[in-house]
Amino acid sequence: xxxxxxxxxxxxxxxxxxxSAGLGVPVxxxxxxxxxxxxxxxxxxxxxxxxxxxxxxxxxAVLDRRPPLTGSTVASTALLQWEIDLPLTALAxxxxxxxxxxxxxxxxxxxxxLRRIVAEEKIVCGLEDKATLYLAGDAYGHRAxxxxxxxxxxxxxxxxxxxxxxxxxxxxxxxxGAIVSQGSASADPARxxxxxxxxxxxxxxxxxSRVEVMEAASDPDxxxxxxxxxxxxxxxSVVFCCGYEFPKGVPTPGAKVISTxxxxxxxxxxxxxxxxxxxxxxxxxxxLYFRMGGDGRLIVGGEDEASPDAHADKAKMKRKCExxxxxxxxxxxxxxxxxxxxxxxxxxxxxxxxxxxxxxPDMDHAWAxxxxxGNGITYSVIASQVVSKAIRGGSDPDADLYAT
Length: 404
Ligand SMILES: Cc1cc2nc3c(=O)[nH]c(=O)nc-3n(C[C@H](O)[C@H](O)[C@H](O)COP(=O)(O)OP(=O)(O)OC[C@H]3O[C@@H](n4cnc5c(N)ncnc54)[C@H](O)[C@@H]3O)c2cc1C
Known about the structure:
single chain; alpha/beta; binds flavin-adenine dinucleotide
């Protein structure tokens, strides 16, 4: 074997998960005005976690202008990480040590909560526990990673630094250092979201598609949503889970919508054994990341670009995939693979790597959820916890971390 090469590219522009089994979610058109306790705008993974949680004790309507799961969720490579894009040490410089520690610990417990929900609901979505390997790169070198591993270990997170000799011996990778962490996971994000929506439906929720929410107006008793179906939705509370299509009138300070690329090999890809249980990412900008899927596909992505629509450019997709392939072949010189799927999507970035889970300014009873960064799905879980507590009249002790 000489290195990773693109041998065939059969499904350019199509996400691997679009062809998953088990994505069916019954939907209805909005044929009349309705009134519910909670309206959730967006039937992606954030709307799915939200609907699953709130349908326990509320009447819930989920509205989407597309079929469910066909936003950013189907494009996700679904590394379910507690590690935030900004290292704990760097986040501490930005928001303070105590807050940064809380943010890391909250992400860690959110991945456990996700695991619990999947187990309790008996959801089949290829969920697997994974370690992570965070490689020194051009953004954070080996000294910074050593300090980072110590900072994490000091609050009980399962991270340890390994030097170049151990990295070569255990993983066959030539880099000046890395952090090995435990406690993350991976899954099929579309199957997960579909199953959560179906569980919410069993509890009484209704999914309306295709229905676009055009405007929202609040009053002391609730919110009225005006839709392109010509019928209004009246709700005591509304939660915007619109992914990277920010609702009008919802400010998102410090947030940027960018583009990112991904591809998947053919099934049963020959790979080193350790890769089956490890997610790999780099402390570089842009960073390369990769993992194995349940059917033995190698899923690899990165090459983020600061443009909200570059992901739609077909010529760029070919170049980006070539760059990702080249970078991968440098890291894993023994691995050769055939590309079966290649796709791209919009992605969010914030200065801190933290999401925005906050009340909509000047609109009572309304919340907006935007899960920024490489662990957007972990943030979808946190959003469902924070918002459901508020809707039930309580307050989450970490809500302040995400209230931008
Ligand atoms: C290539 C790629 C790789 C990624 N990798 C990872 C990863 O490894 N790990 C991770 O955790 N995250 C990853 N992410 C990010 C993750 O996928 C997102 O954080 C997550 O999918 C966001 O889900 P969502 O439900 O908030 O948004 P979406 O899935 O985009 O859903 C939002 C929905 O809202 C609907 N909507 C918007 N506006 C309206 C309106 N006005 N009326 C009605 N409906 C509306 C849209 O149609 C859409 O269906 C990745 C993203 C991409 C693109």
